[in-house]
Write a structure and sequence with these properties.
The chain has 593 residues and is an alpha/beta fold. The chain has 18 helices and 19 strands. The chain has an eight-stranded mixed beta sheet with strand order 5-4-3-6-7-8-18-19, sandwiched between helices. The protein has a seven-stranded mixed beta sheet with strand order 13-12-11-14-15-17-16. The protein has a two-stranded antiparallel ribbon with strand order 1-2. Helix 1 runs antiparallel to helix 2, helix 3 runs parallel beside helix 13 and helix 17 packs antiparallel against helix 18. This is NAD(P) transhydrogenase subunit alpha.
């Protein structure tokens, strides 16, 4: 072991003792301040830097000198060969320090994500030489994948671990955590509710996987996604089928549509049909008489009935010969991935077609999928079973995952004073916690709020018969005719009354005015609302005529005529100015910004 590593191992002994004393006394900084002072002295003796005064902050009404009460959060380097992500980025470390925490990271943890150790040091993160020293010096350990091999056994009693854990598939791991009194927070168990979206790491990674799946498929497909008409002939657009419209499926749909492909999508949850169609894809409906709703509690899909599955597979067989790219994303929590794209469907596909199975890590949705491999079927269909799609975009995936971790720690530090408050009454924290206090707390109680509100059944409106429709039309015509005749009679009586008192010249003008009002009202009333804006622009010319007439009347010697003419000029001018402003905004909509 190097000299620096020896220094770290020796230096964490008093620090560990101070944290143990703090836990015994209820976690207060004052009760453990003496131990932390001795710990800092020992750290200095071994040549390890202590926290600078510039990092100190206030918590409530007291000062925390040199952050003695802060929780130390350590990020481990991933041991899995194909894993390039890291659980802590410099940007997230800055935000965690604002919560009162100290951050540590194992040397080289961010190298495969393009983050150097110096980038961490520049924001005040302590770079620790190896995993053993980091675990010994940390209160909270964060990582991406669940601990493998001896990683779980190397954790200290009473520590907190935050990572993907997959508790349903790893019961032995939960027993290890229970025996070591480890508080384990599974990022894959965050409830699918609105308040928890900011820490939903599964959705973050699924979003990347769906995007990357289309990119990988395009690389293997070898042809255009969008249709084109060229001098050499017409190019048909690619036809893409996405099975499963969760986060990964919707990301794949959006990417494929943006590239110009014709996209079809299927999901057992009927409420996502509107989401699929709003993105420009076609929802694949099944003709199934029974009311089949595949939505399970928490926004995940539930197993389908055998009858529904038969209809589903029959529909896929009908689509297989014309589909160029298939993206499968279907998963059921706690179960192997359902087999949806069978071997006979692969045989029906055209040579050169591509299948990307995003469920390969859980067994795959395609019969021929081989995890972590790209294979070619006997009829020339490429089947991709990679399980590391997020890791293939490690830089972006690390940013999103570390942000999810940061939000989880923010919920665990409600007072922003560097003290973890693991509130099991909180729905999100309770749902993600799988072991605590020497007990296994998995499975959690079901979420109180559904991720997607079930679609309300639409009431069927009875179609009227032909006789009822004719009777309704006759009644409407009679009502309209009666109202029109009544208005004409009232108008004629008013004109006769006015004509008995005013000169004949005035009557000619008033008749023209009344006809203009009637015709104008009838025309404008029937104009569509979408045409009101251009109609207002056209009225500028009419308003100009009004202004000219009013200006001619201003020269009259009658003061009443002058006032009315001035008001006419004012009102018409307002209409003209508004019309030109609306016209300008209309034209700006057709200009490049």
């Amino acid at each position: 072991m190097s000299g620096r590593s020896t220094t770290w191992t020796a230096s964490i002994i008093p620090a560990r003792q101070a944290r143990a004393d703090r836990r015994r006394t209820g976690g207060t900084a004052a009760s453990a301040s003496g131990n932390w002072s001795r710990a800092r002295q020992t750290l200095k003796q071994y040549g390890v830097s202590t926290f600078a005064p510039s990092r100190c902050r206030r918590a409530g009404n007291r000062d925390i000198s040199c952050r003695e009460a802060a929780v130390r959060i350590g990020a481990l380097r991933e041991r899995y060969p194909e894993e390039a992500r890291v659980a802590l980025t410099p940007e997230s470390a800055v935000q965690l320090r604002k919560l009162g925490h100290n951050c540590l990271i194992e040397a080289g943890a961010g190298s495969r994500s393009g983050i150097s150790d110096d980038a961490y040091r520049s924001v005040g993160v302590e770079v620790v030489p190896d995993a053993r020293a980091l675990i010994a010096a940390s209160d909270v350990v964060v990582k991406v994948r669940s601990p493998e091999g001896d990683e779980a056994k190397s954790l200290n009693d009473g520590q907190t671990l935050i990572s993907f854990l997959w508790p349903a598939q790893n019961p032995d791991l939960l027993e290890t955590f229970r025996d070591k009194n480890i508080t384990a927070v599974a990022m894959d168990m965050v409830p699918r509710i609105s308040r928890a979206q900011k820490m939903d790491a599964l959705s973050s990674m699924a979003n990347i996987a769906g995007y990357r799946a289309i990119i990988e498929a395009g690389n293997q497909f070898g042809r255009f996604f969008t249709g084109q008409v060229t001098a050499a002939g017409k190019v048909q657009p690619a036809k893409v089928l996405v099975v499963g419209a969760g986060v990964a499926g919707l990301a794949a749909i959006g990417t494929a549509v943006s590239l110009g492909a014709i996209v079809h999508a299927f999901d057992v949850r009927p409420e996502v049909a509107e989401q699929i169609e709003s993105m420009g894809a076609n929802f694949v409906f099944l003709e199934f008489e029974a009311n089949q709703d595949g939505a399970a509690t928490g926004g995940y899909a539930a197993p389908s009935s055998p009858e529904f599955r038969e209809k589903q597979l029959a529909k896929f067989r009908a689509l297989a010969p014309e589909i160029d790219i298939v993206i499968t994303t279907a998963l059921i929590p706690g179960r192997p991935a359902p087999k949806l794209w069978l071997e006979d469907m692969v045989a029906m596909m055209k040579p050169g077609s591509v299948i990307v199975d995003l469920a390969a890590e859980r067994g795959g949705n395609c019969d021929l999928t081989v995890p972590d491999q790209r294979i070619v079927s006997p009829n020339g269909v490429v089947i991709i079973g990679y399980t590391d799609f997020p890791s293939r975009m490690a830089a972006q995936a690390s940013i999103l995952y570390s942000t999810n971790i940061r939000h989880m720690l923010a919920d665990l530090t409600p007072n922003k004073d560097g003290v973890i408050n693991h509130n099991m009454e909180d729905d999100v924290i309770r749902g993600a916690t799988v072991t605590k206090g020497g007990e296994i707390t998995y499975p959690p109680p079901p979420p109180r709020i559904q991720a997607i509100a079930p679609a309300k059944p639409k009431e069927k409106v009875r179609e009227p018969t032909a006789e009822e429709m004719r009777a309704a039309e006759a009644a409407a015509f009679r009502k309209q005719t009666t109202s029109q005749v009544g208005l004409l009679v009232i108008g004629a009586l008013l004109l006769a009354l006015i004509g008995s008192y005013v000169p004949s010249e005035f009557m000619a003008h008033i008749v023209v005015f009344a006809l203009a009002c009637f015709i104008g009202f009838s025309v404008i009333w029937n104009v569509s609302h979408s045409l009101h804006t251009p109609l207002m622009a056209v009225t500028n010319a009419i308003s100009g005529i009004v202004v000219i007439g009013a200006l001619l009347q201003i020269g009259s010697g009658n003061w009443l005529v002058v006032i009315l003419a001035a008001l006419s000029v004012l009102v018409a001018t307002i209409n003209i100015v508004g019309g030109f402003m609306v016209t300008r905004r209309m034209l700006a909509m057709f200009q490049r910004s």
